[in-house]
Amino acid sequence: MCNTGTNLLRLFISNVIMLLICITTARGQNKNNYISLTANNTSYSLTSTSLLETQQVKTNAFQIELASKANNTFSVKAKVSSSTSSTGTPLPASMLALRLNSTNPTVTANTNTFTLSTTDQTIQQITTTTQFWNTNNFLTLYYDLLAGPVGYDYAPGNYNLTILFTLTQP
Amino acid sequence: MKKTGIYMIALLCLGSIKGLGQTYSFSGTINPTVSIQPVMAFTLTNNGSPTLNFTNTQYSTGYTISNFNSFAIKSNQPWKLSVSAATANFSASGTYSSSNMPASVIGVVKNGQTPYVQLTTTDQTLATGNRGNTSTTGNSFNMDFKANPGYNYGPGIYTLSIVYTLTAQ
Fold first, then answer.
1. Same domain? A21 vs A56
2. A40 and A23, same domain (yes or no)
3. Are residues A124 and A40 part of one domain?
4. Are A29 and B25 inside 8 Å of each other by CB?
5. With contacts defined as CB-CB under 8 Å, which chain B residues touch A4?
6. Which of A40, A106, B36, B87 is the most buried (most CB within 10 A)?
7. Which UniProt keywords apply (chain A) (predicted)?
8. Which residue of B has its CA nearest to A44?
9. Could you give the CA distance from residue B73 to residue B143 in angstroms, rounded to a whole number?
10. With an 8 Å Cβ cutoff, are B35 and A164 in contact?
11. Angle at Cα B100 formed by Cα B96 and Cα B105, nearest 5°?
């Protein structure tokens, strides 16, 4: 009886230890994956006919910092997750586009211009030779942000959009 | 009992391994803002000479020129184009000219519409339209012009400036 009780206790402790080891491993992987967005210049003020009629480009408008301990393959997706305005009529997601300007350190990456939508699209699929795995050693993507041409179909007012970026790893 | 313990351990590990095998996603956002200010502009084209020479017939019936001016408007808000005279009377020169010929001898109207707007120094609506560029319906149009001084003013050279003003409705 005593043996049985001891065995049960051992089994219980073993289970708990195993569980903690596995969970810790999973959480550690989460902890060392990292995406951080920094907006440098993402505001537009359209005050003239020429600004309304041409696409406005903000060079190095924002930057994405990436790190992953588990894998050196990054997939970054982007979409417009929210669009509101003071006029009641939001700007469509397609009014915004983004284009990679540069990376630090230099890696092979997609420099195409992506017109945004409300559904995710992959804007980067990067495989590096270096593993970026902590905030002292991350990959930075510098992006240009393009808006418009807005034209004359939107009333004067303030338009706010949110671009959601998602880092995915295999 | 041992079997139960092994089974539980296996179950726990499987659950955790499943967790390890899934794709991880991490998200961040930026919030671009676009401030659109009121913007409106128009181009005015003179389709003919602004100098009119009156003959006998035109003294009696007036001088009418269709499509005298063309307008092309772009605006991001509903607009109104007004017209007025810069001065109440024409400036006159010549020995027999009259200094009191009023701006109202000039009438203008959007092509195809009536009646003519007799000019004064007060803004009067010539046309209205919706937001859009020059290809938006109603944002490009012509204006007809009529001058009818009659026989009340002496021979001479008369000059008047016409002012067009584009505003939001």
1. no
2. no
3. yes
4. no
5. 1
6. B36
7. Membrane, Transmembrane, Transmembrane helix
8. B34
9. 13
10. no
11. 105
Per-residue pLDDT averaged across B7-18, rounded? 44
Q: Are residues A11 and A80 in the same domain?
A: no
Same domain, A47 and A61: yes
Q: How many angstroms separate the CA of residue A106 from the nearest CA in chain B?
A: 22
Whether residues A107 and A142 fall in one domain: yes
**What is the complex's ipTM, to 2 decimals?**
0.80
Residues of B with CB below 8 A from A156's CB?
A: 36-39, 76-77
A:B CB pairs within 8 Å: 165
Q: Is the entire prediction scored with pTM above 0.90?
A: no
Q: How far apart are the first and last CA of chain B?
A: 86
How many domains does chain B contain in total? 1
Six-digit token pair at B111?
Answer: 């092509």
- Return the CATH number at B113: 2.60.40
Query: Structural domain tally of chain A?
Result: 2
Would you say residue A100 has pLDDT above 80? yes
* pLDDT per position as a tens digit, B35-66: 999 999 999 999 988 888 888 778 888 899 99
The answer to whether residue B17 neighbours chain A at the CB level (below 8 Å) is yes
Check residue A81 and give its pLDDT: 98
Query: What residues make up the domain containing B45?
Result: 40-168
Pairwise CB contact (< 8 Å): B20 & A22: yes
Q: Which residues of A touch B23 (CB under 8 A)?
A: 168-170
User: Is residue B75 in a domain?
Assistant: yes
Contact between B105 and B62 under an 8 Å Cβ cutoff? The reply is: no
What was the pLDDT predicted at A15?
Answer: 54
Q: Tokens representing B45?
A: 């084209």
Nearest-angstrom CA–CA distance, B138 and B142? 10
Span B27-37, mean pLDDT?
Answer: 97
For residues A81 and A100, state if they share a domain.
yes
pLDDT 10s digits, B86-99: 999 999 999 999 99
Q: Name the closest residue on chain B to residue A87, using Cα atoms.
A: B36
Residue A100's Cα: distance from chain center in Å? 13
CB contact set of B23 (below 8 Å; sequence gap of 6+): A168, A169, A170
A47, B29: Cβ pair inside 8 Å? Answer: no
Please list every residue in chain A whose beta carbon sits closer than 8 Å to the beta carbon of residue B134: none
Which range of residues forms the domain containing residue A53?
33-168
Chain B residue with the nearest C-alpha to that of A36: B28
